[in-house]
# Entry
Amino acid sequence: FFLNSKLSVMLHQRAPTPLSCTSTRHQTAGLEIKRVHLARRNVSVGAALTRTKLPIYDVDCRLQEHADHLDYRWEQYTNLKNAISKNEGSLEKFSQGYKHLGINRMEGYTVYREWAPSASAAALFGDFSNWQEVWMSKGDWGVWEVTLPDGPNGEPAIPHRSRVKIKLQTPSGSWIDRLPSMIKWATQEPGVMGASYDGVLWDPPADEAYQWRYPRPAPPSSLRIYEAHVGMSGEEPGVASYSFFRDNVLPRIKKNGYTAVQLMAIQEHAFYGSFGYHVTNPFAVSSRSGTPCELKSLIDEAHRLGLVVFLDIVHSHISNNMIDGLAGFDMGQAESMSYFHTGEKGYHQAWDSRCFCYSNWETLRYLLSNVNFWLEEYRFDGFRFDGVTSMLYWDHGLNRSFSGDYAEYFGLSTNVDACVYLMLANDIIHKAKAVSIAEDVSGMPALGRPVHEGGLGFDYRLNMAIPDKWIELLKHKVDEDWRMLEIVSALCNRRYTEQTVAYAESHDQALVGDKTIAFRLMDSAMYDRMSTFQPADTVVARGIALHKMIRAVTMVLGGEAWLNFMGNEFGHPEWIDFPRDGNNWSHYYCRRQWSLADTEYLRYSQLGAFDKALMELDEKFGFLHNRHQWVTHMDEEQQVLVAERGPLLFVFNWSPTNTYKDYKVAAPKPGKFKVALDSDALHVGGAGAVAWDADHFTTPSPEKFNNRDQFMQVCSPSRTAVGYYCADDYPELASKSTRMPVTQESSEQAQQAGPSYAPPAVMPAAGRTSAAAANLGRDPLNREKSPEEHEEQRRVVEDLESGGAHSVL
# Structure
């Protein structure tokens, strides 16, 4: 940072103070387990590659201090990948394990294979056998197998939708029933509370199988992600279906300007209240919302709309539910014959779940095949990996903070086996030209650098510190005490050599026990004071203004991609509370009230309109993926923040009371600037004090002004975010009398209404000024104005009515 006496700040591609990590020698235990499994396939792990300098040391020279650890990690990755290629043909073939294991239909027969090396006996049974055991034989590497010939007329031995289970004899001699580990669908008996799941063979005949109609869309230049939960996407209490989401929610996402959908809770999870994070059957589509074909139809429709679809994938742990899930294959055997670690390492105390042993050959086959399965079978376009921090460290990152010391990341506490697994997973993902996002709170360096450089290979990491900062400010500080440097530091504290997904809040903040930003700002006022038929009171006016500002500044400064959780864009009230005994198993708080956003006289619709304007702004100007980011000014006394992002210039006035008529801001280039975004616009819940059609001409500065050669003067109302673009660079936009892109909906209304219709974003000057005049005598908080403030606002209104521009010509 470079600060002057006014606390102006220049930030240009700043390398932040790192968030964590350290150097370690060797993961001895993991290496020994690898030796066991690789030796079984006659592979030598002792032949290390000739050490060469990894490219990540040139990207971040501080990583060189931990070369021993990073070089060791790279050698483990290359040795393991070479071993996989030698023994399995290639990483791609290795990751197609679901075509060999599980239940698969072949020419003339059906074969079922299951890896259960510690079982003494195994049998498949289900509807197809009248629930009589069909015994299996044990082959190499502990894989049990049974082959069932087709019927006399060529019908499969196990019909489509047949319920199936596997019976296993444990080393102690007892018998247990489990679902096949790679089952593609699992259901509960309807109407039976607490019923266990049955595996269901999903193998529709050719005339019933889903036929893909649309190709995958090209990756969007700007990634604007809509995080969604299908089950809670309906307005009526209950579990919504994939078909409902396809027909009702996808069009909203597209219309509101998002480019990607991130689907939560798709992998089957017996406990609905886990939000999908206690997965029981990683290969199965959650049956609560429908069938595999219906999910494919949802994804296909998203692709038709031009939306890419990401899966929220959970490979950091597995549900401890042994009856319904993969955890049931742990029969107390040795770690080398299990998907999981044994002892304390195998149990996640904080999550009550099991932890994978990422060094085991068959664990790697299972997880990598799971990645490939969702890419190939369902055509997902990428993944958000949940709980990556828990994977990266043996202590799961619990009960410690990451200070920025690199030694915290590259030491004996680091799970190198998990790092190697993630590198292999990203190899598969990127070969399919898909996207990977890491949920990592620790900030491990090089997590977002390509694998071939020595990084873990993720395209993006979630900037999880940003929502924490907003919660801290909203809970513990009044607006007057918000410091610009504190906000900027939180938003910009990231490595600019690694891409980040910015978000002000996600599903985490929406859960019961926490609060969304809108709920923290307005609380009970959201129930009965959101009508536009009455002036906004103090609480609502503040809440509406800050909700818009927080989202805008986070999107502008927080990262290279954007994420929003379903409903937060319009300030969805209340919290999410899944059905449970404590709420009498009610779905009332586990739904989305879309009608609030659709009702024009409710202020929820205004918040939704502003969010749409933000998405449209990025669509037109591409600022989100633009690497140019420069904070030119921070005025702590007046609470004003000025920043450049891409081709745009933004002015944020956080002051609860002060409006600045001719505020002087540095301009990135000489010329004429016009308003591109206005959080004070009437149709988004503002007071309408900004002149939309004004031309803001720059003035040369004899001396550098905030490190720029020119400046301009703007009107900056209290609690507003206003964005500007250089009209000389966008003559087509500048020729229009709008300060925001006209939406398709407004265009259609204009066609229906005739030539006299003016959509809200193109309101004539007279309409705007009369609205501003109507607001005389009160500010957004209904506070009585002083005589001086009255006079100042009268001058602003008179200037607006005369068509004047708040700039120096």
Observations:
- The chain has 21 helices and 32 strands.
